[in-house]
## 1
Amino acid sequence: MDSKNTSDPIGVVGAGSFGTAIANLLAENCEKILLYVRDPKKAKSISKSRICSDQKLSDKVEITNNIQKLGEECNVIFPVVPSANFRDLMKQLGPYLRPFHILIHGTKGFDLQLIKGKPDKVTPANVKTMSEVIKEESSVVRVGCLAGPNLAKEISENKPAATVIASQFEEVVAVGKSLLKNERFLIYGSSDLIGTELCGILKNSVAVGAGMLSGLNLGENARALFISRGLVEMINLGKELGGNVRAFLGLAGVGDLIATCGSSLSRNFTVGHKLAEGMSIKKIMDSMEEVAEGIKTIDIVHHLSNFYGVRSVINEMLYKIINKKLSVKDAQHLLMKMPFRQEVEFLD
Amino acid sequence: MAKRKIQYDQVVPRKNEWPIVKLAMNRPEFVQRVADESMAELTAKGKSIHEQLETTLYKEKLRIRANPWKVDPKDDKEFWDRVQTDLSDIQNLSKKDAASKEEEIMRHIAYRYSDEIAGNFNKSYFRFARAFVTFGFARLLNAARGKGFLALFRRQLDLQDKLHIRGEPEHIRKLAKKGTVIMVPTHFSNLDSILIGWVIQYLGLPPFIYGAGLNLFNIKILAYFMNSLGAYKVDRRKKNPIYLEVLKNYSTIALEEGTHSLFFPGGTRSRSGKIEKRLKVGLLGTAIKAQRALYQKGNVENNKIFVVPVVINYHFTLEAPALIKEHLRATGQERYYQEADEFTTSYKMASFMFKFFTMDSEISVSIGRGMDVLGNYVDDEGNSLDAKGKSVETIDYFKSGDDVTVDSQREHEYVRILSKRIVEEYHKYNRVFASHLVTYTAFKMLERRNPKLDVYSILRLPEEFLEIDYEEFKKAYKKLQNQLNILHKEGKVDLSEHMKKTATDSIAHGIKNAGMYHAKRPLILKKNKKVIVIQDTNTLYYYHNRMEGYGLEKYI
């Protein structure tokens, strides 16, 4: 199926900065884009101002508040909402989706379903990636994800970038490519859906840490040390969760890590930076317009690492800081005492 | 044992309407169609006819020299010699003539294979054989139950007394009227196809076709029955591209024609004793392909294919010692191993069956709930329901936009989805016998005691390490029994009645029945009732494997 040049509208869910950037990118290749905004008031105001998350909307983007319309009119939908709202969204959208729908999500976070009475119980049984949520909450099978160094602001400024579209279905990758590709936006395909999703998610905590180092002014050497060790941790846990090492070494893994661990445009990075400056977690969260997935990721990675018996020293440190069991200063010393047996063992 | 016997009537009373009979009546057209459609695939874009012919010729010549069988056609060698001559003659032809000549040779081969696979089923044979199987079983059982020779002519006992059908027998009967059913049983023993044959007949279902290993046709008595019972021939020696394509098309087209089919999706008998995990994608792929082809034809009635998992359980597998040896040799990296064929003669076959049915031991066949080809459950009407219980149209899986489209990569993924679902259902319908759990407990205890040893070393442990204190054993057994109860409540596994008894009773039942007819039973309880002795680690390992995949190891 080549959706380019057809009159079928393409759907986008989520009017955050990345969702808006995706909608505008799609507008370069498609006739009509439906952008779903959950809050009716917000939908109205965006329709009127044509400004969404500080970006000017293309004329081809139509704002809608009607989820049924989205499901029934669009065969291809890009959900880009925070992981905490993703399942709810899918529960609402699910009834209007059918097995021929294609869903390519751009959400870099885990879904966590808390078990009643056991808020501390976090195991692979109740932690899911977004593609798994889509499959659980709808009859859609043609699922893909977008991952890579894609700072929304830079995309909206028409700066060059590339991304990975991963799906077990070649047709999903092909459709995604034909819809999003242009001369400033390059697209790689991958068949490792879970691995690619995990790249985007697991890098969040490393990005928080990198922001912290930057806030402490520890310099580039320390940051490089941190990123490389962070990558090893990502891979060790990623493998347990069913990802392939290859994905982590590509654009979605290393690529995303480099971009987010050095840019104040990254929300996760910003969270870490402010932590180092002494701001409390609560204050930081309240001050941000959009959700930083990192804090939630650190918590989940902590539990999953325990479950699999994987050593995640960096994440553990961040976990303690966030839960106030460790000060940022102490962590700095701890970092230099990290016992490394072998630098790179995941390739063996 | 005053259970009332249920009698099922025939789902489709008029035999001439049975899909298989229709197929038999149109045999020549069917064989031709299989050959033609295979040709279409084989000559599709990007495939070199020449290369495929060369590979096939090479492999066939090798087979004829290295591994000839009694059932091979008399002109086997002659035929392939001629193909070789024809192929070498082609070199002198113009490019265009050569191409058409190559295609002709290939068509010839495809037709030959199609004809061979179809076998010679015959309607009148067919009825007779079916009646005979039922009748024969009853006779065999009566004689076996020690009523002597005269009992052969009394008709009191039949398989129903030995064999417990669980799960959803009414459901599969309903589905057989609504569309085409593919039964996918687990496969542990050579007797499975006979058992399933009986179950199909007993449930009043119209007959199913299935691919039987050509080696079984070497035995005259079996060949006779199989030819007449709708078995088609699968030659595992022939791994050439043309044969495999024809074989796949045979199954696909039979399904398209509405013929109920039986697949053993694990391919062969489970060597390790584990429930199949990796299924053969080739055969399952024909289900997906046939379903798509049916949808392409538009909205025809009864065009849905249903997949019904079936789990067969018994306390012991007669072939276990040979199977597990093969498995160990294969996983032990030995390069070549001979397939164990216990049934080389009609006599061995008969004595095997006799032994099997005379033993005082339970067999259960659990019929799973029907699914569509994507693994969605279906209701009695055949409507698919997604994971949330919402109705879903199977045809939508094959559409892009408004039309049904062909996308082989997509269908390949669907096979994986289906195969995963079948394995899940196997675990769910698996009916745990106490004998499975005693062997599991014992083997896991050996592993725990020797954490540094790998499986192969544990299997070679000397005798003095093979005793387990009964009380210790019981403690571990209890824990597992509890965990299984939890899984059972969650609908993740089925339990037999004796699993619900106290640990002491359940263990006693398990030890008594575990591999009871092997020369050396895997486990015995010493007379003082204080020590359990492992007598045969190989078969212990084999039966223990049955319980893998439930995450029980964490509880011991």
## 2
Amino acid sequence: MKLFPHPVLRLLVLLGVVVTAAAGCENRTVDDGTGDIRVGLYASLTGDGASFGQSSLEGAQLAVEEINNAGGVLGGRSIQLLVEDNQSRPEEASNAVTKLITQDRVVALIGEVASRRTLAAAPVAQRYQVPMITPASTNERVTELGDYIFRICFIDPFQGEVLAKFAYNDLGARRAAVLRDIQQDYSVGLTESIVRNFTALGGQVSDPISYSSGDPDFRAVLTQIRAQNPDVIFATGYYTEAAVIVRQARELGMEMPILGGDGWVGDALANGREALRNTFISNHYSGDNPDPVVQNFVASYRQRFGREPDSIAALSYDAVKVLVDAFERAGSTNGPAVRDALATSSVAGVTGQLTMDANRNVSKPAVIQEVTWENGAVRFVYRTTIDPD
Amino acid sequence: METLLQQIINGLSLGAIYALIALGYTMVYGVLRLINFAHGDVYMLGAFSGYYLAHALGLDGNPSVLGAIVVTIGAMAFCAIVGMLIERFAYKPVRHHPRLTALITAIGVSLLLEYGGQVVFGATPRFFPQMIESRTYALGGVQITNQNLLIILVAVVVMFGLEFIVHRTRIGKAMRATSYNLQVAKLMGINTDRVIAFTFALGSALAAAGGVLVALAIPRIDPLMGLMTGLKAFVAAVLGGIGSIPGAMVGGVLIGLMETGLSATAYSTYRDAVAFGVLILILVVRPAGIFGSTAVEKV
């Protein structure tokens, strides 16, 4: 039996092989030092993570507009932001980055928010030596993928520690249950860290209960958790499922505090409505911080987009600022030069001081916010700041 | 004990959802011997038409029982028309071809609705407005919401209603005759085209009602929501004996209980695998399902 029986099919396969091979050894044209600087943003503008995508796009847009209006970079060159939607799917994230690099010839990349999609796309950027800054992917492994991958947010081993400490010290919890999204590297990594830290503090955690992104019904697993009667529940997945989990937990008469990570920051969390009582998250920044840097950002964002910026928007804004700072210090947009400049970044951002360490991560404090439902909208109320050791 | 009871209630709530959809599968299969794979997607269309209708009526944020009824009926009417259109333009042209042709057409229609839905509605999940205020009833340590009670109630009423239509009315008799032998039924003066159109309209309207009801209890809706739920309902219909109305009900509840039972263990992520494992098992061991025995029993 022939593997590809039809002649047209055979031709297509051949064509595919040739194109792939050509893409692999292609010489990227180097930026000639004039015209706009092309920066790629790949984001989940549609699908489950649409809120992440929208916020990161708006944050980056605002930063780019501010920079261009202030005279641009590298002697008056403007930044041009090229945007690709990945439909919240990891395989599309990797395709989007391939397209941005090989066709749109971007010199640097901003993205993604969800760790799973950054993990899928980062190897492409690394292969082509195009520097990538992820604004909000907290999974530890993201920056381990290569020396062209940077991030400007804290990582999950720290976030898990913050949540565990807050639950144990501030909420006085001793027994905890954890719900994790088995499909998301972010949720799995954060769960691991929470379990490790909460146990180290002297608390008890039952075996994490798994679900998959998109599951519509959590009553069965919540009933099981109810039988264990824990003091707190950690829901380490993303905002869409978090809303349903909180709501169904309250419907089952479970009134204990429910805690989540920065993955709760998204529009669909509002679906939790009144059930969003006694819920807390760890986050990157707090919009009610009186620091003028934060307040200026909040004001210009509100004026530009007519809504309050969330932490994803703030991080994305910062990512562009860090990148532009690196362009200036490198004196060019050449990949290796920008990479070297990024490795020594130290920028005062909206979300705090962004100083790159040897592992291309930054060390930043986390805030704990109480999530509340007021007048038909979700509000994140600042509770405390926890610094890294 | 409390936990067990609660899990049974959870399982019943979930099972009633599958049962509502499985009833539509079974009815179309009963008459046409066609697995209408687009049925789960009609259920999705029901939820979306309800969503737009509820927003048009301004029900988002001000719950009203009357509004909820209007929305449900509107969605049912819309989907009944869609169901008839699907039958007229996708299934009728291939009715006299081998059965496999119709099956592949059904898969095509299903994909068309799913990905057409992504184009029209967008891939981002929407949240269905709370048209009726959510209330939780507690009995002992067992909790159930009014929405879930409503779903269970409607599933039971629909089952008896369908039994009545099929066995006690003229159109039901015509449906049974068409099911038994299309050609002979035609010779006896039955307008089989109309009977088949009616079957699709009824099945699709039920799917729409299911879509709206489920969206009330589990408010997250997206264009692919009918895919997995539809497949599970299909498993339920086969388990109960495809073509049998009480079978669809029993199959749905069994699948719901099984899924809930499994979710309660450490193997919660194997839920879908087990549901489809059941499908394979039942096809190997007892292809007719629990209730499906003789052709006469079939609708």
## 3
Amino acid sequence: MSPSPLKEALSAAPDAPVAAGARPEREYFCFRIGELSMGVPSENVREVIRPGPLTALPRAAPFLIGVTGHRGEVLPVIDLLRFLGKGESRVGPRSRLFVGLAENFSAALVTDAVAGLRKVARQDILPAPMGGDAGAEHVLGVVHRKGEPSLTLLNLAKLLGSARQRAVVR
Amino acid sequence: MRADEEIDLLLFEVGGELYGAEASQVQRIERVRGSPRPNSLGRAADGARSLAVGASEGGDRVDVDLVLGIVTVSAGALRRVPLAARPRPYAIGLWLDRERPVVLIDLPEVITNPSPISGDATRKPE
């Protein structure tokens, strides 16, 4: 006598929830800069601040627009658009800086507007377009959204590491 | 140096940027004779001031736009330049004037590295 469908299903049933059955997702800190909507893993973002006095550094890398003081700490300020080869940011009163962290290195990055935190399912992330530009190596993927611009997800830890390296090898 | 110790900084401007230097490095301040000479920090405008700087190789002058004076600052307000900003030999640190970082310059090093800066370095935020 063959087992009933229920018994058959129960014999194959796991003892605990299967991870693959869940909807793996990750939280991203999303922002707009120029015409681009971008996101970075939220665990790499410490805080969002208003731009304070910005001091240019002599002969710094072009994407390094200066340093700013924040609670007794001096932070390098990075223009993501320049770094990614997509133009140039303008720091104005409506701009915001977010403080990004990678290992023991932190930097402030310029945004035009902060959109907030958003959970993105891994399966919704599409690969970065092939043959991309200079910044493609720092793109985790792209999320297409109905009625909204595509969200480009950046590997902030890698980006900050590259920024640090590029600044040093100049 | 302890954080509560103090140091005198001479504040000056070149190309609209504020800099500081250890006041004891400046022997005197003069009017520029002739055209201002460009240096690592930029080119001062006409009517500039000249900082007479003592250096191990005899000393020279660093022409600046404006001398603002001397401030006494706490060593606790001094900071290293962030690694990503790669300090030039003459940009030795920062003084955090409240939240505003002021680049600190080693004037004798400016004399030994007189190459003018690129335009990017003088770009200011809007």
